[in-house]
Amino acid sequence: MHREDFTLCNHKLSLFQAEKADCPLIVFHSFSDEGEAVYQELRKQNAAECNFLSIAIHDWQREMSPWPAAALSKDGEDFSGGADAYLESLLSAILPWATERIHGKASFIGIAGYSLAGLFALYALYKTDVFTRVASMSGSLWFPGIKEFCKENAMKILPEKLYLSIGDKESKTRHPILQTMQENTEDLLKYFKSMGIETTYEVNPGNHFQDVNLRCAKGILELLQ
């Protein structure tokens, strides 16, 4: 395994290159720089060889949110809806940089993320046909309007595999918006299955902050099967 770090479009990139040619490329968005820990967890779980591109997202509320929405708390930051602009950078600059550096051609390109990045991974299916496998771990499917958006719009490509997960305590909260997370996730699960998409759903023990790296690795492992 060879690691290359680079900064492009104001994002810190870490590309873990597979030794073999023509291995899959997994694009993973992280809140800071936990990509290394997730990649090591994948190795610990004996994952199939892949190219792993970790992208550190610093303006989380902007770049991972599909449209503007109010903050979840008085002290929180509003969501400013910059996902389309970020996706343009990902497709036009970041992905070409990565695909030039891997051996051969990726057998498929998958996208994965946790929390808001899990929401973004799902949203990307409606904007581009580049990603054929998607993992949304504890994805923020409480986000206002996302369930309706998914049902009222057509995906650019039906993914070969889709993975959704949630923690069993994530919806056990007093916050009325966050309470919808499991209900929305399971409603969309049924909808995606009705479209004929091969969808895996996993309920993990704990709240939103438990075993994050392991949960991310489990979702990516599913994409690599």
UniProtKB/TrEMBL annotation:
Task: Please tell me whether the keyword Membrane is annotated for this protein.
Answer: yes
Protein name listed in UniProt: Esterase
Q: Source organism's superkingdom?
A: Bacteria
User: Gene3D superfamilies given for it?
Assistant: alpha/beta hydrolase (3.40.50.1820)
What Pfam family does this protein match (any one)?
A: Esterase
Task: Cite the entry's keywords alphabetically.
Answer: Membrane, Transmembrane, Transmembrane helix
Query: Where, by residue number, does the polypeptide cross the bilayer?
Result: 106-126
